[in-house]
Amino acid sequence: MNEKETNLTARERVKAVMNFRKPDVLPWMESYNDGIILRWLREGLPIDKVAIVDDTNLPQGLLLQGPTLAGFNLHSYFGSMAAEGLILTIDCGPIPKFKSRILNRASTYVDYRNGAGQIVRKNTAVENPTYNMPRFLEFPVKDQQSWEAYAKLLNPNTPARYPKDWQKDDYLFTLEEYQDGYTSLAISGFYGFGAQLMGIRTFVEMFYANPELIQRMAEYWEYFTIATYRDAVESLKDKIDAVFWWEDLAERHGPNISPKLYKEFLLPHYKKVTSFLKKNKIDRIMMDSDGNTNAILDLAVEAGITGHWPLEVNAGMDALTLRKKYGTKLFLVGNLDKAKLDQGEHVVRQEIESKVPILKEMGGYIPGLDHDVPTNIPLDKYREYAKVMKENLAY
Hints:
The chain is an alpha/beta fold. The chain has helices at about 10-20, 35-40, 45-50, 75-80, 145-150, 170-175, 190-200, 200-210, 210-235, 260-280, 295-305, 320-325, 345-355, 355-360, 380-390, and strands at about 30, 50-55, 70, 80, 85-90, 100-105, 110-115, 120-125, 135-140, 185-190, 240-245, 250, 255, 285-290, 305-310, 330-335, 365. It folds into 2 domains: about 10-30 and about 80-95 and about 140-390, Alpha-Beta Barrel (TIM Barrel); about 100-140. The protein is built from 15 helices and 17 strands. The model has no long low-confidence stretch (mean pLDDT about 95).
């Protein structure tokens, strides 16, 4: 790594690390869900310090107007930044959406159909029902016939896929000016796409039971992804700092598909999409996958993936091992054990200081937890973590 760069913005720091350069201070990335925000507000998180007040999107035609509460930003309060970046929102779901409606309500759960066509069961008998993983009861694609029907809803030329205010020059200016983190596009990968439509079990079984269907789906998703994103990618080019590539193709003990299946069915399509991105100067592509991805990481790098988050400790992912193996081929984000957050400052300090200082010097590493902040973590424990983290960011 070269001499450290000084007086950088948050965005410049992220870009420096992604390119294996040394910034003055390491960026720090986290993901906060709504459940943890509500918990911490109850525990004394100062609402006036984290509230986002919007006075630019007001009802028209009213004599009396006032600011509205648009949400909460914990990143500015703690000093972190969003792991997924500032996302240019492009709708890659079915259009028109499925009509969302409740199908069944019981004392402890509610079943409903969502806009993607999945039927899910949400547990309401939990302390914090705003954030819990639903149970998926039914998926919209089951076979060739249902896939063909669903594919008709995935027309890349539907104007509603882009923001209503989509104007290339305006977005170029906005992305140029933004400095609070990195700018990004969010893409669903080939495994993530299929698993969302069919469910993990059915999707994986289809690689053997109906490989022709899997091939058709992958071919269409390649076409759809490039065609849908083409206008944004070719207009904005390297104003998009990185692609946040969602996959979730692994669990604790390894990937849900073998390297052989990945190479045969998915790799050629990855290469087409990443080549399209890199042709337009977007060459930082971070894969978001839980679980142990070690068995397919060589292929992911060959596919054009250049970064990885969140690197779950409980699944056996280790940033130090990955850095030694992949060198500058793969920047890394996360890998601090979230399970240790509530075990006291000494344990938290040991976890941070056993990884961050070493990886900081090796380069290409952005610290953060190995997934979302768990909803069982008290505010005072997270403050301890944040304090120790910030002590280890400067070079």
